[in-house]
Write a structure and sequence with these properties.
By secondary structure, the protein is an alpha+beta fold. Helix content is about 35%, strand content about 40%. A hairpin with a 7-residue loop joins strand 7 and strand 8.
Length: about 230
């Protein structure tokens, strides 16, 4: 009797395992990448003025005077107020003998004032001239220049489409190599996109302006997709 019971249990376990295997979906999982490279149509620059003086008031007065002239110049070049924003403002003491090991007392010998602004330049044809002019007006602190796109969404849609197409092509290749039939899409997820500069190709220069290589920016998208295996 016990042998019959054991046999029934073993048969039940086998049927359960077979049903579990049949219920497990058979999938092909892939990741697709899509990319679009285009010339930028906007630049973001961070520039400012730093000045030292014996007292804080003089240091700040010199910086304020130069920055006022720079802001006026930016407005004259057609840059709107909405594209100019203060990014850093500081006033710090300048020390002497601060790291001295001879026992001399550290003293404040002056003050350093700094004022920086972030500027969006929407007309790249004037970028070199803008940089030249603000240097002439007293800008002596540059902390970066980044190329970008004013409206990247349409290009991001193209990058997403290419990412999906790439994933589908990979899935079809894997299915053919495995000798199975590719089924319908079971899931799709986007991993986000990014903008990044690529190799610079062109230089912009007009008259005596600073030469700027505008190059291209790259917009990319990534997706994960799962496809059913039909047989």
């Amino acid at each position: 009797m016990w042998r019959v019971a054991v046999l029934a249990i073993l048969v039940g376990i086998g049927l359960t395992a077979r049903a579990s295997a049949q219920d497990t979906p058979r999938l092909i999982s892939v990741t697709g990448e899509g990319q679009v490279e285009v010339a930028p149509d906007m630049a973001i620059i961070t520039l400012g003025v730093t000045h030292e003086a014996k007292n804080a008031q003089d240091a700040m007065a010199e910086v304020s005077k130069a920055v006022t002239g720079i802001l006026t110049r930016l407005g004259e070049t057609g840059i709107e107020n909405r594209d100019i924003q203060t990014s850093r403002f500081s006033l710090n003491p300048v020390w002497s003998n601060r790291n001295s090991s001879n026992g001399n007392r550290a003293e404040i010998t002056g003050f350093s004032a700094s004022n920086a602004v972030s500027v969006r330049v929407r007309d790249l044809s004037v970028l070199g001239a803008v940089l030249t002019q603000v240097v002439q007006d007293g800008a002596n602190d540059f902390n970066g220049l980044q190329f970008a796109l004013q409206d990247p969404e349409a290009l991001m849609e193209t990058a997403r489409t290419r990412a999906v197409q790439d994933a589908m092509a990979k899935a079809e290749q894997l299915a053919a190599a495995a000798g199975v039939t590719l089924g319908a899409v079971q899931s799709i997820a986007e991993h986000g996109g990014r903008n990044q500069p690529v190799m610079m190709e062109r230089a912009m220069m007009s008259d005596s302006s600073i030469p700027i290589a505008e190059g291209e920016v790259s917009i990319s998208a990534s997706v994960s997709m799962e496809f059913a295996i039909e047989n």
